[in-house]
Amino acid sequence: MDELVRMKELIQILDEASRAYYQEGREIMPNERYDKLYDELLSLEEKTGTVLAGSPTQKVGYEVLSELPKERHEEAALSLDKTKEIETLQSFLGTQPGVLSWKLDGLTVVLTYEGGTLLKAVTRGNGEIGEVVTGNARTFVNLPLRIPFTGHLVLRGEAVIRYSDFNRMNEEIEEESKYKNPRNLASGSVRQLDPKVTKTRSVNLIAFALIEAEGFDSKNSFMEQMAFLDRQGFETVERVLVTSGTLPEAVHGFAEKIKHYDVPSDGLVLVMDDLAYGRSLGRTAKFPRNAMAFKWRDEMAETELLAIEWSASRTGLLNPVAIFRPVELEGTTVSRALVHNISVMEELGLSIGDRIRVYKANMIIPQISVDLTAEELKRAQHAPLPRRFDVPERCPVCGETTEIRDEEGVRTLFCTNPDCPAKRIKRFELFVSRNAMNIEGLSEMTMEKLISEGLVHHFGDLYRLREHRAEIAAMEGFGEISADNLLKAIEAAREVPLERLLTAISIPGIGVAGGKMLSRAFRGDLRALRAAGPEELAAIENVGEITARDIAAFFRDPKKSGELDDLLTEITLKEQENTQEQTLEGKTFVVTGAVHHFENRDALKAFIEARGGKVTGSVTKNTDYLINNDVNSNSTKNKTARSLGIPVISEEEFLNL
After folding, report:
1. CA 418 from centre of chain
2. Catalytic residue from among 82, 103, 516, 605
3. For residue 238, with 0-12 CB atoms within 10 Å meaning exposed, 13-18 middle and 19 or more buried, which class applies?
4. 219 is catalytic
5. Fold held by 421-493
6. What pTM was estimated for this model as a whole?
7. What is the pLDDT of residue 578?
């Protein structure tokens, strides 16, 4: 009976995590934690011989609930059985040749072509029925809409957002709006109701399987199928032909590449090259038997949990952060990890002083794998542990009461104070940042002091701080000279171009690039922008209907509009005319390292953009030049550029272009 109770509990937990991950683009528990609970459920089902209705072990993908049209797949799009052991892969392969490739971490899409033209695109959905996203797929940056092959063609691919594009998009938006990971962003982008939004997200389609090609002779080879897709113009997944003997070396090769791989991947896929043999193996209710997934075995370290800190956000959400004795993981020292929410803390059984095991999810994000002390106690007591940690009843920022909210079984902590300074600090951080109003010397700590002293409530108050010089000079850590320096920096930031003002004032969905885009679209006329309706805004390239509605609502909000009016009494908008010849139009640059000819890297980026060039954060095959004064260094960006044949040039070489 206890085992059945635990199975029901696990089904509920896993269903909530899947719903958040697949349908809402949220992650409420680490992948490693999900896998562990899934394996526990599978083990209990095998032990008891009972499989309860709705068990995640019998499901594929997500249940389709959105407003997009639905369609049944011609052939079921199943998930794969998985392992973390190379020996299991070797046993699975046996004496057959296999194909090893990346397991891409995005959203699977099934594409159908007729007469050489894209007919439809459908998400995997629950494996049987998916969502029709044809209009969105037409905006994928690398997807061929016409191909040489004119027969009936069906293939599967992964819609992904590269890390370089993901980082670029995050650089262009305010801190609180930043996307959490490229996988969730890709999933949400593909399943948009408005293709205009998808178009702005730089979604790529990487083909990984040919399902049907009318009249094409594949020579009974998976590798030949993929070569055929290459010839049609698709970007296909990187792959290598292996045997059981060469498999370990191939896995090691992929493990080395993932450190610099620009496409999100959470492991590898091994598939039989012999198509007829693979089909003869059949399938289970959930998995095909011709392929298996290999998930990276994360490097683990044991340490001691020292404290739980609660990090406040602009929304009022208080995120638990585990602080532990520093350990080395994947070549770096880590001492803290986000624990997502109270539900995850309860599931882990966290308590200060416990021995815990930590890892980096996909070699990047620090996570807690297991509380070893709690597991030992659980085994000794033969029952789950009650909560063993304290949840603060007062907000660590404002001291007001907190409340635990239960949203579909996920318990989170919130500050109830609508005027909590934490909800304002992040807005002010963006406002004073270099790409916004560029007020030097206004750190988060200083901003906290100014707000807590009651000197700043609205943006315009920053420009009236000269009236409080004596109070600022008397603040801890300040003095006469520091106060004067701060006030001089504020005075120097009274004149600003419209594009930077728009970046500064926290318009939903508008960051650095968005500010420039709106400024150009309205030719620097703020009055016209404030009067624009959603339809006029949606007509601007790269502005979707949702973003257009958010922008219009922002300027029509009496409180926000009043704050902007107040700010405009303190600052001056300067006209920005670009008279530069567009000598760099069509060229993409990445800037890294120290600069000598320019004040800072942002000044160099502005120089490039003023001449029509584009600046991104990461080196990809679309980069034309990497600017780095240390051209011979072995930095990651230099190595990536050299491997892709992209010139690494100094500032002087750049200026001579």
Report:
1. 28
2. 103
3. middle
4. no
5. DNA polymerase; domain 1 (1.10.150)
6. 0.50
7. 52
